[in-house]
Amino acid sequence: MATTSSFIANLPPLPKVEGTEPDRCVLDLFRTAIAERVANALPPLTIEQVYNGVDYGKKGVDFTIALPRFRLPLKPDELAGKVLSGFQPDEWIENIVLDKAFLHFTCRTSTLTRLILTQIHDLTHNTASGSPEYGTNSLGKGKKVVIEYSSPNIAKSFHVGHLRSTIIGAFLANLYKACGWDVVSLNYLGDWGTQFGLIAVGFEKYGSQEELEKDAIKHLLDIYVKVNADAEKDPNVKVEAAKFFKRMEDGDESALVNWRNWRELSVKKYAEEYDRLNVHFDHYVGESLVGKEWQDKAIERLEEMSLIEDHEGAKLVNLEKWKMGRAVLRKKDGTSIYLTRDIGGAIERYEKYKFDKMIYVVSSQQDLHLSQFFKILKLMEFPWADTLEHVNYGLVQGMSTRRGTVVFLDQIIKEAASVMHDQMKKNEAKYTAIEDPEYVAQEVGISGVKIQDMAAKRINNYTFNWDRMLSFEGDTGPYLQYAHVRLASIGRKNPELLPLPAPAAINTDLLIEPSAREIAFLIGTYPDVVKTALRTHEPSGVVTFAFRLSHAISSAWETVIVKGETDLEKARARLWLYTSAQEVLGAAMRLLSLRPLERM
Ligand code: ARG
């Protein structure tokens, strides 16, 4: 951090405000400078109080304070008068303007640009971890979060709901890491339940080890579909299946061998596909691994609380009091069910990880299920039950490939790659210049799918549209990749400017164009974008940021030129600005689990 702090040392000193992290976000210093002035002018306000009231301004304004929020006895213009009367511009604040009840502040451009670019440089190249850290913070220091996402069912189709969970979950895992949390990521496979009794019955008739090794996920689903059709015609199939599942639950080794093999091969196949999506899990857990004892204890405890009702031999929990209906916890034959496994599973996870927070990324279709099991854990008086959080999301309509309905994750990836490939071929000149079109098509295609998914608030439903999401025009994944590639190419196209000198030797005062300042300010806000996302669990804020930045860059191309700029000092300052912008755009894309491309 040597360079950023040496610049700060030469500026008017500022107090330290609790909760700020200026060595991660230099805009904290400008907010502090504003807060200090306003607090001095308006006793008895403290710097902290004012600081919390410093907001980003509307377009063209850096920061704004809404004076009425402080609830002081004077009128806004009297308050403003006190702030403005003694105002002397300094190296932090250049100007203050009163606009109705608002005070608008403009930061000193030279300080702003200098500090932001230097901090990005420091946190990209001179970090203790060796990897880029700009945008990160230490909010979660010493805390552990368990995040469960994706969680498809073995032998059933991987639907868009699972895709959304995968995409949003991967983002959250990256986000919590960026905020200093210790993250444990889990994939909770639907690898248990009566459907495995069905598969076992079906496997005897339709199974093939060879097919299984080739593509376990596909083969098991084939069997599942066939045996379900059999079960429609012959009620015995279901009886056999239930018997078989009972043997599995009782731990009968001969009933478990095949199942274990199916699970293992499915996980292997999934892991490859997650890899292509740039999504990772610390552990593949699953419903099968949830211990029985905690499920039993849960039922015992609920019985003590008189919340259990017997219904023809099955056990129901009555949550009517909380408007959560009645739910089965144990079937007549004693086998467990989804809800009970979730209860036991949560308890085990707490025993194992002692988490400070646990997040379930699951479709809003399961809102009731999640609230039921959270409620039951609360009734069991686990103090950590309050730390459980359901991150939900809306439905996706109309996802199909050109060949039909999507049932597998690899179909989604293949279709994205192939639609993208066709899209790219439309521009022949560009297409022939691409080194590895297959790879680029896949990466860009995946970016399109992900960005479409994260562009709006989670809870919104949306319609899957290959053409729209894979277009280079409009706010799409391909557009972001393109913006990143374009930034990456400036250095390559101007080799005479490289390597750039050390930050201190670059004259940032030459960055005078309004569009250059806009880029600098925007990339300065990125650490705040990350913090907001942590609070809302919404990837859309990060997506919006990435587009705003891409648009700001694209409007700067014409005026803030590098190629053709004869003043080399100026050209270098501009190249540094673009390189910093590339770093921040790349960081935002990585946070969203994209792999930013250097060329395409
Ligand atoms: N496997 C489930 C499904 O596909 C999703 C699991 C969600 N997580 C949980 N802990 N219940 O519907």
Please provide the count of β strands.
16
Mean pLDDT reading:
93
* Physical arrangement of strands within the biggest beta sheet: 7-6-5-11-12
- List unreliable stretches of 5+ residues: none
Q: Output the CATH class name of the largest domain.
A: Alpha Beta
Quaternary class: single chain
Major sheet characteristics: 5 strands, parallel
What is the overall silhouette? globular
Mind telling me the C-alpha Rg?
A: 28 Å
CATH fold naming of the largest domain: Rossmann fold
Helix content class: 40-55%
- What small ligands are held by the chains? arginine
Organism: Irpex rosettiformis
Protein name: Arginyl-tRNA synthetase
Report on this structure.
This protein is of the alpha/beta class. The chain folds into three domains: 2-107, Arginyl tRNA synthetase N-terminal domain (Gyrase A, domain 2); 144-302 and 330-393, HUPs (Rossmann fold); 411-591, Isoleucyl-tRNA Synthetase, Domain 1. It contains 22 helices and 16 strands. The chain has a five-stranded parallel β-sheet, with helices on both faces. This is Arginyl-tRNA synthetase. It comes from Irpex rosettiformis.
